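Design request, tokens follow.
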């Protein structure tokens, strides 16, 4: 099976959210195939359905001075930071093709990064059952995952810390967890990573785990 692949580069969060909503509706109408978007965001904080403002540690004035906006969104999870150097993946997928199994869908997303980190970098990563979603290296999260589903079509997805500015996570309690940390590939390896190569690796392992063939698309060909 095929999946549309779009790489957008640095994109405003609100713009990306509007794109996702359009693609989700088109997928529900069966007008497009499943679609994976990879991009970056300028610094932004999002609150999922379980999000609490008490987990945003920076003051509203300080965030405004830095140009950082806060968005309340319909994905699962708590508070999350997105910023440059982080590979964001938005997945527009009809789960009827995945046996309508959201748990297995999330497990497969985790497996993408567990395999990528192990095979490419010999880094042991894992997922934890229960409330601790995402992919972890020891006690530190390297990939956050938050999904929403409407009429069995997903949106939102994952955030993989590659060259992420880790000091920005001090603005929040990541995912609402005070006893867990965050990390990035750059932090683990001690050297800045080639972002273009990592985007291609994420696509490669995503398609491998989900058994899909990527079809590269321009976003305008999908939504207009």
């Amino acid at each position: 099976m095929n999946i549309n692949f779009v790489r957008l580069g640095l994109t405003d969060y609100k713009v990306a959210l509007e794109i996702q909503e359009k693609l989700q509706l088109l997928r529900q109408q069966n007008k497009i195939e499943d679609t994976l978007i990879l991009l970056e965001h300028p610094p932004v904080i999002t609150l999922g359905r379980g999000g609490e403002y008490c987990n945003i540690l920076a003051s509203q004035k300080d965030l405004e001075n830095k140009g950082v906006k806060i968005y309340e969104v319909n994905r699962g999870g708590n508070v999350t930071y997105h910023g440059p150097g982080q590979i964001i993946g938005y997945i527009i997928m009809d789960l009827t093709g995945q046996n309508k199994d959201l748990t297995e869908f999330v497990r497969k997303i985790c497996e993408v990064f567990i395999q990528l980190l192990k095979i490419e970098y010999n880094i042991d990563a894992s997922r934890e059952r229960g409330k601790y979603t995402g992919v972890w290296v020891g006690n530190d999260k390297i990939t956050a995952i938050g999904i929403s589903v409407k009429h069995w079509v997903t949106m939102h997805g994952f955030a993989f810390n590659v060259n992420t500015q880790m000091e920005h996570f001090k603005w929040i309690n990541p995912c609402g967890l005070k006893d867990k940390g965050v990390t990035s590939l750059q932090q683990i390896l001690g050297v800045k990573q080639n972002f273009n190569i990592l985007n291609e690796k994420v696509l490669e392992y995503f398609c491998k785990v989900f058994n899909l063939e990527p079809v590269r698309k321009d976003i305008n060909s999908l939504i207009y």
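Comment from the thread starter after seeing the answer: thanks! The first strand starts at residue 2 and ends at 10.
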